[in-house]
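Running co-folding for magnesium ion.
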Amino acid sequence: MISIEEALKIIETHLPTLPHETVELSEAAGRILAETIAAPEPAPRYDNSAMDGYALRYEDVAGCAKEQPISLRLVGESRAGVPFAGRVGVGEAVRISTGAMVPSGADTVVRLEDAEEKDGVVRILACHRQGQDIRFRGEEFAAGDPLLAKGTFLGPAQLALCAAVGIERLTVYPRPRIALLVTGTELAPAAGTPVAAHQIRDSNTIMLAAAVREAGGRLVLARHIDDDPEATAAAIGAAAEQADILLCSGGVSVGRHDHVKEAALVNGFRQGFWRIRQKPGKPLFFAYQDHRLLFGLPGNPVSAFICFFHYVRPTVTALAGRAFGHPVVKAVAGTEISCRGRRPTLLRVSLDKGEGAWRAFPVTRQGSHMLTSLTTAQGYALVQPGTGIAAGEQMKVVVFNQTLCCEG
Ligand code: AMP
Ligand code: MG
């Protein structure tokens, strides 16, 4: 058996490099940029007005004041989307809206409040400086300036910036393709069919499919396999053709009807590790092949879930261009927390927002067959055997829902 840290290290050293994808901007939300983006054009692209007002020549109105207004001839209008076709000459002004192109000849904008318009004449009551209220071409950035770095998360703001400068496609890290193979002759589909007395409803398929999507993976296949060596080997072989990660559930223990390990090996996967000194999830199996990984999660729903969050999620996020790591919040133990077993324990805890700091409490039911140990918890803490965490002591909690990391 290896340690949790060794297991993570082995996975990290076998992470494949997946080809980047080029996607339309409309498909890029939530992805990670795999290229560096420089501005293809300046922003603003043209001199435009920052205000509703009048575009004019500063030298025509310099020195004007409320008591000493200067009158200009109104020769047209520049609206947003409908520029003024002519040129502003001596003694002339053009009505202009916010965002509209500054007409040639004009070098300054006077806002509506500082002017009075009547019968084709504009009286300018104030103008403070040349160039006022104009957004000049390139004042935000010039063509060629760096805009977004490789590795940037593409959220709404980043996509807007790309759209604003005319970028239509982006090269991003892929969403790893994941095939889910759920083993167990005892399983009945969770919905649609009655469950016999000797059957177990399959809860891992829906759980892992949701976890895969949440982590940023793309589920390309989900199927159930009976505990049969040939069927398991055939399913792994077929899934390997479509997926970057094969995610198996069940069938990795030492029982006579556990076939996942053998079926992986006959398909040319090489064992990275099997069995980790941890609770829950001891029998976790990890194998690799070319650019493909295989995780054999234990069938117990809680073990499968915790193994997913501790080993598979970092893998998916790393292949999707993010860090190989865990979303962690700092908390203080709300009560004394101890580890009674002999293995390091990934102890499910609930989190409670006390005066500014998260307080963690172990959930009462910790059995690896008890799904309520997950629904009542927000995350888990690693507790070493023979050690404890005193009430009030600082601790780290890996959270199931990453957004908890950011809650202030
Ligand atoms: P295994 O790892 O295949 O030995 O399964 C361990 C335990 O988890 C057994 O009690 C199974 O019935 C249960 N189990 C396995 N697969 C699932 C599943 N997909 N949904 C719910 N329970 C499961
Ligand atoms: Mg089984």
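Result summary
The chain has a mean pLDDT of 96.
The two ends are 39 Å apart (CA to CA).
Job closed.
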